[in-house]
Amino acid sequence: MGTSALIGLLLCLVYNVSGKAVVVHKRSSTCYGDLGCFSTSSPFFSLQRPINFLPQSPAKINARFLLYTRQNHDNVHFINMNDYTDITNSEFSGGRPTKIVSHGFLENGFVKWMKDMKDAFLTEGDYNVILVDWGGGSKLPYTQATANTRVVGALIAKLIKLLQERGDAKPQDFHIIGHSLGAHIAGYAGERTPNLGRITGLDPAGPYFAGTDKLVRLDPTDATFVDAIHSDGSPLITLGFGMMQAVGHADYYPNGGNNQPGCDKDPISSVLVEGSLYDGGKQYVACNHLRSYSYFTESINSRCPFTGYRCKDFDSFQKGLCSDCSNNNCGQMGLHADLHKPRAGTVNTKYYLDTSDNRPFC
């Protein structure tokens, strides 16, 4: 793919596919009932966000919550937040930890990677697993999808509150995992949920979020423990969709945080490996970005610990200057990152590690 084609693709992602002019909302606000009001003024309007939209309505976004447990492993239960008896009539149990998983831009809650992660969780432990489908709001243009994340985060916070009230759940037992825009959705949910247990950001989206105020993006105050995997931190102009900026208590940078091994396949090879034009094209364009959820899913049941080494930068790590795991200098990337947290009171602790170019990555 040539440079001009890449630039054209990026413009399509930020604006729209048809090339028609996009109406940009003036700085204003809108309110959606018990979700509250959403403004396009500062800090949501900034140099990093020159084109700013108001979020669409909950009805337009049509977020759905798909509940799975070991009791209904393959039979989804769609949680109805408008039916006060729905939680008590479902397989949800407040005595189990709950994993909430959100997709990002241009996806929905039925994509294969989310199913794979759900299956891995239910193999590893007795969880409530809730997949978030906000496909109605994740479409083009990207600027509108970024705005919609705020409403989706508010809806997840509302769901967690409902599960506490009707399912006897505790906020510290919730773990929200979000990929790309989903990582910032998790942040918005955590901001509204006191004592939320954990958030894991899987290559948090960079465009419209990197360098912004912490109210706009995922940050360490959004949960008791926030960890992130950065796999695609290259500049957007070279199709880097993530961010290098540390956003958690523990930030993991596999292979330096960009240029993941095995992501250099040509388009034809990508299609042949993935088995379809859509999946192959997605891997070719965004392989580095997608690796974050592949690493996390593998970590759930892997005996290999994905050991990350605390280091000031990737260059120092490559020189072997950070290979000592004593004094809490190492962590585990992925699900088990909470077993080796940074020292209390520290944030943005950076860990580096290498992976292989194919499964198993560790």
UniProtKB/TrEMBL annotation:
One of its GO terms (molecular function) is triacylglycerol lipase activity. Keywords: Disulfide bond, Hydrolase, Secreted, Signal. Residues 29-361 form the Lipase domain. CDD domains: Pancreat_lipase_like. Residues 1-19 form the signal peptide. It is found in: Secreted. One of its GO terms (biological process) is lipid catabolic process. It holds the Pfam family Lipase. Its EC number is 3.1.1.3. GO terms for cellular component: extracellular space. Coiled coil: none annotated. Belongs to the AB hydrolase superfamily. Lipase family. This is Pancreatic triacylglycerol lipase. It comes from Mytilus galloprovincialis (Mediterranean mussel). The lineage of its organism: Eukaryota, Metazoa, Spiralia, Lophotrochozoa, Mollusca.
